[in-house]
Write a structure and sequence with these properties.
The protein is of the alpha+beta class. It has three domains: 195 residues, Muramoyl-pentapeptide Carboxypeptidase, domain 2 (2-Layer Sandwich), CATH 3.30.1380; 224 residues, PPM-type phosphatase domain (Phosphatase 2c, domain 1, 4-Layer Sandwich), CATH 3.60.40.10; 156 residues, Tetratricopeptide repeat domain (Serine Threonine Protein Phosphatase 5, Tetratricopeptide repeat, Alpha Horseshoe). It is built from 22 helices and 17 strands. A hairpin with a 4-residue loop joins strand 13 and strand 14. Helix 4 packs across helix 6 and helix 15 packs antiparallel against helix 16. The two termini are 76 Å apart. This is Serine/threonine protein phosphatase. InterPro entries: Bact_Sigma-Reg (IPR052016), PPM-type-like_dom_sf (IPR036457), PPM-type_phosphatase-like_dom (IPR001932), TPR-like_helical_dom_sf (IPR011990), TPR_rpt (IPR019734).
Length: 663
């Protein structure tokens, strides 16, 4: 009630509960700790206070104070010292003095482990605040005997729930039990307690003072305990603890809100990451004898770096590496725009593409973000035309000389200045077999080690020259590994992208092998074709035409498992070639993987719905699986497309033979 007064800024002893008790009773409760009230009145007062104040912690500390304050009367009248166990045996006397509703039975479980069984009179019902108060009393024992290692827990209660945290009372409480039980267990050395007629201040006072000792008989290591001091400190601790609990609750609330926002943001970031993953190619396929490999290391879930490739029919391939200002979702949004714009503006000159993209970004982004970029067009004769928009210049490695050089070029970044189009220039270079070209973002070269030294272009060029005979994949991966070692122990400050390309030094060998494979394939000598394609595949493992031809030859020669590997790899490039899905479905079918076969044949049909062979294959699959209704649906679809298709009638006869119960 005193805490309630303080929390509500009430005038001293002004009765806030006139509807429950009169002013005189309210004043006597506050002034006289021995004033008795009925349980019914006590319940009304506590319920009223609990409506506006969390009093579970207060009740706990009141229980602690009740034990400490009344412990003096449980001590022997002479100077005999008692230990923790004997004090516990005297607790039922104290419970009998405090209440006529509850009786306490104490049961020893071991030397330092006791059970406390609280028995209520039949006409009374246990309250939630009783559970908290009694456990606070047991804590008073721990305070009085200066226990360091102890455990207090409720094990059983007749209650079916308590509105305070269950974990504060015990981890595994049996609610709705037939008893109300607690356990107290401790590990500390024995401390003894006795009465004293002395005080710390003078010898005339008869205030309640106790003496503690580590020995039952000797006088050494004795100390005086004034109950007023202990209770005062307990109250200070209670107030501090309550303030701390309030602060913790506020922090918990903030933490919960923060966690909700973080979960929401994490969900959005995962979605953005998955979307961006679909925008940025994991692998760029080999093109016309040129191999590609990329190193990509985003600083956050989503990246402001972006790279992509853009086929121009059959005679040119566009390749772009961009670095958007900023990081995270806003930067990722501009990367998505970039992909759309590069796909839309396939101009014969990179500078023209830049001019159009710059204008569109100005309209869409409103100068709220920009991107640097290097964009190149690779022609079928290996002439490269490129342009730069505020981006690091490419590095060209000449196979003949074994030297790396920084290419020319400059220009203003995209999406910030209306007149930036005047700065874009087209530059040219010619690739020879074995030459390598590297495009990268400044996150690669500007990254610093723990001594503040930048990775730099010089180190990058040295690594390129040092690995002259390595493949483009090996070179890129080696550079990225060196970069990770160089920056180890530092936080990433930017996204990192490194895109390398190389005109294969074995281009002529590849063309000869591919040509021989095509010749024997046309003669339906599929086993011999697989041998030629296999060797060509080793030279250019991501060349799509060879992958598809090799996969078909493997399938037609009966090597279904290897055919699956090759065709799955081919389909990862999303070429939307219905034949690759159709043959992959056939391989799955022959391997007994019917669900996968169904998926691939459906894909093949969705890509080319005029080719009825895919529907025919699905009908045969459903026949094998005794799925009569699905088979009929496919036959009906075939009739709708071309009712004169010669395979429809035999399929219908086979359908009629299927049992009806399989529908």
């Amino acid at each position: 009630m005193q805490v309630y007064e303080r929390e509500n800024n009430l005038t001293a002893h002004t009765n806030p509960f006139p509807e429950i008790l009169d002013d005189n009773t309210y004043t006597r409760i506050l002034k006289d700790p021995n004033y008795w009230i009925s349980q019914a009145l006590e319940d009304k007062i506590i319920q009223q206070i609990a409506m506006s104040l969390d009093i579970s912690g207060i009740l706990y500390h009141v229980g602690t104070e009740a034990l400490i304050t009344n412990a003096y009367d449980l001590l022997p009248l002479d100077d005999t010292r008692i230990d923790m166990v004997e004090m516990i045996q005297r607790l039922p006397i104290l419970i009998g003095r405090l209440t006529r509703v509850v009786y306490l039975n104490v049961k020893p479980l071991s030397e330092n482990h006791f059970k406390f069984v609280f028995v209520y009179l039949p006409e009374y019902q246990e309250k939630w605040y009783d559970a908290v108060f009694f456990q606070g009393m047991l804590n008073g024992l721990a305070v009085l005997f200066e226990l360091k290692e102890f455990k207090i827990r409720m094990t059983k209660t007749k209650l079916f729930g308590i509105h305070v945290s269950h974990k504060e009372l015990g981890e595994e409480i049996q609610f709705g039990s037939d008893a109300n039980e607690y356990e107290l267990e401790w590990k500390d050395d024995v401390l003894y307690l006795s009465r004293s007629h002395l005080t710390k201040d003078n010898v005339t006072s008869r205030h309640r003072v106790m003496v503690t000792s580590r020995s039952e008989t000797e006088l050494e290591e004795m100390s005086i305990v004034d109950v007023r001091d202990v209770v005062g400190k307990s109250r200070e601790l209670a107030i501090e603890n309550r303030d701390l609990e309030a602060a913790v609750e506020v922090l918990k609330s903030f933490k919960q809100e923060l966690e909700k926002k973080q979960l929401s943001m994490a969900k959005d970031l995962r979605l953005a990451k998955n979307i961006q993953k679909g925008l940025i190619p994991e692998i760029i396929p080999d093109w016309n004898g040129i191999q590609f490999w990329t190193g990509f290391s985003p600083m956050q879930e989503v990246s402001g770096d972006y790279y992509d490739y853009f086929p121009y029919h059959t005679d040119k391939l566009g390749v772009a590496v961009c670095d958007v200002s900023g990081h995270g979702v806003p930067a990722a949004f501009i990367t998505a725009l970039s992909k759309m714009l590069f796909s839309n503006f396939k101009k014969p000159k990179p500078s023209e593409t830049f001019k159009l993209i710059n204008r569109e970004l100005l309209d869409l982004v409103k100068q709220q973000g920009y991107t640097t970029c290097v964009y190149l067009l690779i022609h079928s004769d290996y002439k490269v035309v490129y342009s730069i928009a505020g981006h690091p210049r490419p590095i060209l490695f000449r196979h003949k000389t074994g030297k790396a050089e920084i290419c020319d070029g400059e220009g203003t970044f995209l999406g910030m200045f209306p007149d930036a189009g005047d700065t874009y220039r087209d530059l040219h270079l010619q690739l020879e077999p074995g030459d390598k070209l590297f495009l990268y973002t400044d996150g690669l070269t500007e990254a610093e080690n723990d001594h503040g030294l930048a990775f730099g272009e010089t180190k990058l060029m040295h690594l390129i020259e040092e690995n002259a005979n390595a493949s483009i994949q090996e070179t890129v991966e080696l550079i990225m590994n060196h970069h990770r070692e160089f920056t180890m122990g530092t936080d990433a400050m930017d996204d990192i992208t490194l895109l390398g390309l190389q005109l294969s030094p074995k281009l002529e060998d590849f063309r000869v092998l591919q040509s021989k494979g095509d010749q024997v394939y046309q003669k339906k000598d599929y086993k011999q074709a697989t041998l030629y394609y296999k060797e060509a595949h080793k030279i250019l493992p991501r060349e799509l035409n060879t992958q598809l031809a090799y996969g078909k030859a493997l399938a037609y020669s009966g090597d279904y498992e290897n055919a699956v590997v090759m065709l799955e790899s081919y389909n990862k490039f999303k070429t939307n070639h219905f034949k690759s899905h159709a043959i992959l479905g056939y391989c799955y079918f022959r391997l007994g993987l019917y669900e996968k076969a169904e998926v691939e044949w459906k894909k093949a049909y969705s890509i080319n719905d005029s080719n009825l062979s895919n529907l025919y294959n699905l009908a045969q699959l459903y026949r094998k699986l005794n799925q009569k209704q699905k088979m009929k649906d496919v036959i009906d679809k075939m009739k709708h497309i071309e009712d004169t298709y010669l395979h429809i009638l035999p399929l219908e006869k086979k359908w009629e033979l299927l049992p009806d119960e399989s529908i």
